């Protein structure tokens, strides 16, 4: 049972609906959208004890959404759960987990561990910048925004995936 739940990759027809149902249940029971970047921003604002952020916007654009709930604890636990889930997956994920060897990545770039870490850090910084510019992360726009029929989320998701595909094909053509 442990192998089936935690080690083997779940098929898309199980994992996709499970994520969708969890997001819908969270919206129904907590009346909150679920997105990693908005949760991260809200947790930082709660930790700072301020509703203003470093970009100069005031309380109208600050998170959390409900003013009666200035520092919900679930956001901190959600972030802790994301980290712990990744750590548990890394620890119990089988023989291919627990190393810095990324299949396909290492054969393509040949950077070694320090170069891989530097490139992943740079990529993460770019993702953070893009998340801030687009008003949310890929999962927030693709899962929450599109399901709420928000046109900007549809446009953002199309742009995310189109740019990602173009960049991947461009890198492959450049380095292959």
In terms of topology, how is this protein built?
Elements: H1 2-7, H2 12-30, H3 36-48, H4 73-92, H5 105-109, H6 112-134, H7 138-147, H8 151-175
Helix pairs in contact: 3-4, 7-8
What does this structure look like?
The protein has helices spanning 2-7, 12-30, 36-48, 73-92, 105-109, 112-134, 138-147, 151-175. With 176 residues, the chain is mainly α. Helix 7 (138-147) packs antiparallel against helix 8 (151-175). The model is unreliable at 51-64 (pLDDT under 50).
Key attributes of the depicted protein:
176 residues; mainly alpha; 8 helices
Count of helical regions: 8
- Percent of residues in helices comes to 55-70%
For the record, give the distance between the C-alpha atoms at the N and C termini, rounded to a whole number.
Answer: 42 Å
Which residues sit in consecutive blocks of at least 5 with pLDDT less than 50?
Answer: 51-64
Oligomer designation: single chain
Class computed from helices, strands and strand pairing: mainly alpha
Number of extended strands:
0
The biggest sheet amounts to: none
Q: Round the mean pLDDT to the nearest integer and report it.
A: 75
Q: Over the alpha carbons, how many angstroms does the gyration radius reach?
A: 19 Å
- Strand percent estimate: under 5%
Gross morphology is: globular
- N-to-C SSE string, H for helix and E for strand: HHHHHHHH
């Amino acid at each position: 049972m442990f192998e089936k739940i935690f080690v083997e990759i779940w098929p898309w027809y199980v994992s996709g609906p499970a994520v969708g149902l969890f997001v819908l249940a969270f919206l129904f029971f907590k009346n909150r959208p679920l997105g990693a970047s908005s949760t991260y921003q809200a947790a930082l604002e709660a930790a700072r004890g301020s509703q203003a952020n470093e970009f100069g916007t005031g309380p109208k654009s600050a998170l959390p959404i409900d003013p009666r709930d200035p520092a919900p604890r679930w956001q901190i636990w959600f972030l802790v759960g994301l980290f712990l889930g990744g750590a548990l997956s890394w620890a119990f994920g089988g023989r291919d987990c627990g190393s810095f060897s990324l299949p396909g990545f290492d054969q393509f770039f040949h950077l070694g561990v320090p170069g891989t870490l530097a490139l992943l850090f740079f990529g993460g910084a770019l993702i953070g910048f893009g998340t801030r510019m687009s008003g949310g992360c890929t999962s927030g726009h693709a899962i929450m925004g599109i399901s709420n029929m928000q046109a900007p989320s549809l446009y953002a998701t199309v742009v995310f995936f189109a740019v990602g595909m173009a960049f991947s094909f461009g890198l492959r053509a450049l380095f292959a």
